[in-house]
Amino acid sequence: MWSSSLLVLASLAVVGSASPAAAPSHVVHEKRDKIPSGWQARDRVEGHIKMPLRVGLKQRNLDMGPSYLDEVSNPHSSKYGQHWSADEIIDMFAPSQDSVDSVTSWLAEAGIASDRISHHFNKGWVEVQDSTVAELEQLLQTEYYYYDHKFGQSHVACEAYSIPSHLSQDHVDMITPTLHFDVPVRPNKDELQRKRRKRDLPSLAANNTASLPKPGAKVDMQTLSTDLADCDTSITIDCLRALYNITTGTYNLSSYGIVEYGFQSYLGSDLDLFFANYSTDLVGLRPTLASVDGGAPQSLIQNFDFNGESDLDLEYSMTLVYPQQVTLFQTGDDEESASFNNFLDAIDASYCTYDGGDVPGVDGTYPDEKPGGYKSQDCGIYAPPDVISTSYGTTEASFTIAYAQRQCYEYMKLGLAGVTVLYSSGDDGVAGNGECLDDGVRFNPTFPGTCPYVTSVGATQVPTGTDITTSLASGTQPETACETVIYSGGGFSNYFNIPSYQADAVNTFLTDYPPPYTARRYNNTGTSRAFPDVSANGANYVLAIDGEWEYVYGTSASSPVFGSIISLINNELAAAGKSPVGFINPTLYAYPDVLNDVTEGTNEGCSTDGFSSQPGWDPVTGLGTPNYPAMLELFLSLQ
């Protein structure tokens, strides 16, 4: 999966005064080249401070994972659609006893008593109780510092650590707590209340997430057309159904999950306002709540930054898939919030612990010992839905390769289980979350969209002045890449190799339409994962929000809309006695004609025009937008 030409954080020499030279038998396992923005090192941590050590073990057979996933998701495979059970997946990839024994022996040789060493029944991690900073510094050949954030928070971390070479190569994935100090910060609850009174709220999401939808002008519902005449300036349910040939739903035989985090919450009154205008049968209906780590809808804070995302996701997805029920995975309590990993814990009990489990300071830490915090950790309490849409994202550079790799493998396992995982590709073009690398020069790809085992969804728009009825009747593509308020996230990974299913499409783009940039701007090797995979409209959505109507923009809209179409297809497959589509990328790249190709527009960022939409796949809109009847016919024919 990892390319030697990509960014490498493991097995490098340590640079900097905060990282002592590795012992002769040790190699650097992970390191950071720079401190995340907003943080500053302060003082060494006192040696007597206690920090429990967690050693994440390498899983077995991960190198075979892509082949296994290809067998069940490649439309030309004899095993297509034969998804694995949860037990089969755990048994295939569980760490070996040899890894447990090797790590345990290392700890014992370092003088750690056996009664302080434990490992979970699934062998995913080894833990040392009552370890001190002085002990960890000697064990890992590192130094721990306090880091202060400009917002006043403090964190403990190191910048690199070393372990014996045989462990680094064969047995250990990651160790915590170490260098994972990229902590997204937010004010505490009292500060939130104060800011609410001042109407000066920050745009908050889950830990590790950003890219919330962008608000626009207020909508005058009195003058808004009830036909398709205004789809170039106002996207409604009817516009989407016309653009993508979506028929109304018939069944409630499949499962569709929308994931939200922390304070992000819908308002029931907003849902009913929307439903009263666009789907009266839904008035009074709510998503099925799947609370994760204390997550619950809140109405205390009513503001676009807190209600916009969830309102958007649910108003459109619930309407498009009705009568199917939508499940809301509300993740994280009001004190700690949560990360993607906390959600993954809830649908896979083994994920709570394998490869070291969640990372304190990066993921929400549960049980949450803060007053009012959730006093448990939810592991494997829900079966994963057939489709998961998440409208949040961050950047690859926010994490180490080991952290991103661990999460990416979980998406691979979900694909093996027959789950379709969709993530929005971001709203800032080639500048992930509005930031560029290397002093503003290098493009910043988003994550998890760069993971080869998720479907990354970019954004399109209907240009002003376009009559979609005329365009559709003439067979003309009515959409271009989104260049209104937001730009579709897209580009090339710095972490992940190119998957086989997209190699030909990406090579065609790079050969026929070579971008005008050097390797200084982006990973132009042609061997890295490219994104997005597909796209859907992301501009001028008409949203009921905080009792009013407002326009909204973002791939935050694209992902749940595309997910709704996949869920409609799954319902039809279930009615025909067939399995859900699962990981859709290999099929869509093999049969791109079931999508509407988008050939105009760019995704500017980092003081450039970004990439350009072109015929076929491109790193702006992917393979294009959905054509529901064509996609349904294809997937029905494959089983």
From TrEMBL:
Q: Give the active-site positions.
A: E309 (charge relay system), D313 (charge relay system), S556 (charge relay system)
Give the UniProt keywords, A-Z. Answer: Calcium, Glycoprotein, Hydrolase, Metal-binding, Protease, Secreted, Serine protease, Signal, Virulence, Zymogen
One of the protein's GO biological processes: proteolysis
Q: In its keyword annotation, does this UniProt entry include Glycoprotein?
A: yes
Q: What is its EC number?
A: 3.4.14.10
The catalytic activity, as recorded, is: Release of an N-terminal tripeptide from a polypeptide
Residues involved in Ca(2+) binding: D597, V598, G616, D618
A Gene Ontology MF term for this entry?
tripeptidyl-peptidase activity
PROSITE patterns according to UniProt: SEDOLISIN
Q: Where in the cell is it found?
A: Secreted, Extracellular space
Segments for region (Disordered): 186-216
| GO cellular component annotations of the record | extracellular region
List residues of the Peptidase S53 domain.
234-638
Its domain of life reads: Eukaryota
Report if keyword Hydrolase is assigned. yes
Cofactor(s) annotated in UniProt: Ca(2+)
User: What InterPro entries does the annotation carry?
Assistant: Peptidase_S8/S53_dom, Peptidase_S8/S53_dom_sf, S53_propep, Sedolisin_dom, Tripeptidyl-peptidase_I
Cofactor note (record): Binds 1 Ca(2+) ion per subunit.
Function comment: Secreted tripeptidyl-peptidase which degrades proteins at acidic pHs and is involved in virulence.
Which PANTHER family does this chain map to? PROTEASE S8 TRIPEPTIDYL PEPTIDASE I CLN2 (PTHR14218), SERINE PROTEASE AORO, PUTATIVE (AFU_ORTHOLOGUE AFUA_6G10250)-RELATED (PTHR14218:SF19)
Protein's name in the database: tripeptidyl-peptidase II
Taxonomic lineage of the native organism? Eukaryota, Fungi, Dikarya, Ascomycota, Pezizomycotina
